[in-house]
Specification:
With 390 residues, the protein is α+β, with helices and mostly antiparallel strands. It is built from 10 helices and 10 strands. The chain is globular. Keywords: FAD, Flavoprotein, Oxidoreductase.
């Protein structure tokens, strides 16, 4: 019978340095994030500017800054698995779905900027890494669809002398009005190789922002481009390279995206366990009821599976492997599991789970959105099915 080597447990474990990182983030959340969040309203969306700057300064002091930015660009160069570990812990707050750690861990420009020209990086991305400029947005999705940008993008960019003129719109764009600039993907030709990426500054004439009311606590925006004239040097890379420059980042982004819902659902499950042990019903504790115990057990099983799927996808990404399918499995597994777990946790809390006394109902709305973001559940299933049947 095979034996486990001395000093090695029978379970898969995170590398020691990532355990230390996880614990550092967990302490930061407990010491700095939770007390601040307790002063905010139930559906608050961000901190006042002065408080955010102070919180970010504390994060930078202990190295929790520009974690996704490669070292050669001045960042921490954290691995994909490391980003997943941080992402799960940073999501364990009321605003964690859209503002992990209340925005404390900044310094990351849109990842396609790592393939921009040196001049573009220094002008636009460097100030974000250094913390002197707010984050930038990325605009891919349109009303015609977001999960298949190669076909869905209709925003046109037409060459006019030394400029490009943009006409059309983008939908469901997060953080747009508060950003100093953004990366906008527009059609310059036919097919997948007919999409280009442009840097668009906030005050560019012809660009307007309209808030879109949705069920989540955080509202996205519609961006309209009416005869927006951009110099050709605002294009990232060559004409038609937009999607090819961003492909790896989009795939890896799904893996990192999966971590947040896991963190939220884990926090909800911890709350449900505490509530079940304290709540008196029908002459005993809620935790004594088999129906409740099985709900908790099923939730634990789903979260363990989702976490390991996400860790595996991140591990393979760090090894340089093609993780298109792994990323879809992780995103699909994590968002669906988290949503189901949260639903059970609300049920265990009864009417209290529906109230704004707890973060559960806010998380429920936010996680519903997460099942659509970064490619809808059905799209991820198609990616996996195509790989199986190929």
């Amino acid at each position: 019978m095979p034996t486990v080597p001395a000093g090695v447990s029978g379970a898969w474990e995170l590398p020691h340095e990532l355990v230390m990182l996880r614990d550092t983030v967990r302490r930061f959340m407990h010491t700095h994030v939770t007390p601040l969040e307790d002063t905010l309203g139930h559906d608050a969306n961000g901190l006042p500017r002065e408080q955010l700057v102070e919180l970010q300064a504390k994060a930078r002091q202990i190295g929790l800054w520009a974690l996704q930015t490669p070292e050669e660009f001045g960042g921490a160069g954290l691995s994909v698995l490391g980003q997943v570990v941080v992402g799960e812990e940073a999501a364990k707050c009321r605003m964690g779905a859209f503002f992990p750690a209340l925005g404390a861990f900044g310094g990351n420009p849109p990842k396609v900027m790592f393939r921009a020209s040196p001049e573009q990086f220094e002008k636009y991305a460097r100030p974000i890494v250094e913390g002197t400029m707010s984050k930038a947005y990325t605009a891919i999705t349109e009303a015609s669809g977001g999960s298949d940008p190669a076909r869905a993008i209709r925003l046109k960019a037409v060459r006019a002398g030394s400029d490009y003129v943009l006409n059309g719109s983008k939908m469901w764009i997060s953080h747009a009005p508060g950003a100093d600039w953004g990366v906008v993907y527009a059609r310059t030709g036919a097919g997948r190789n007919g999409i280009s990426a442009f840097i668009v500054e906030r005050d560019t004439p012809g660009v307007t922002f309209s808030r879109i009311a949705v069920m989540a606590s955080f509202a996205p925006y519609e961006l309209r481009f009416d005869d927006v004239r951009l110099p050709a040097d605002q294009m990232i890379g060559e004409e038609g390279q937009g999607l090819s420059l961003a492909t790896d980042f989009l795939v890896h982004g799904r893996v990192i995206y999966a971590a947040g819902p896991i963190g939220i659902a884990q926090t909800a499950l911890d709350m449900a366990c505490r509530w079940a042990k304290d709540r008196e019903v029908f002459g005993g504790k809620l935790a004594d009821k088999q129906g409740i115990r099985w709900m908790l057990a099923d939730s634990e099983m789903q979260l363990r599976a989702a976490r390991l799927l996400t860790y595996q996808a991140a591990w393979n990404a760090d090894l340089g492997r093609n993780v298109a399918v792994d990323a879809s499995v992780a995103k699909l597994g994590a968002t669906e599991a988290a949503y189901q777990v949260l639903d059970r946790c609300m049920q265990i809390h009864g009417a209290l789970g529906l109230s704004d006394e707890l973060p559960l109902e806010r998380w429920f709305r936010d996680l519903r959105v997460k099942r659509l973001g970064e490619g809808a559940t059905e799209v991820q299933r198609e990616v996996v099915a195509r790989a199986l049947l190929r």
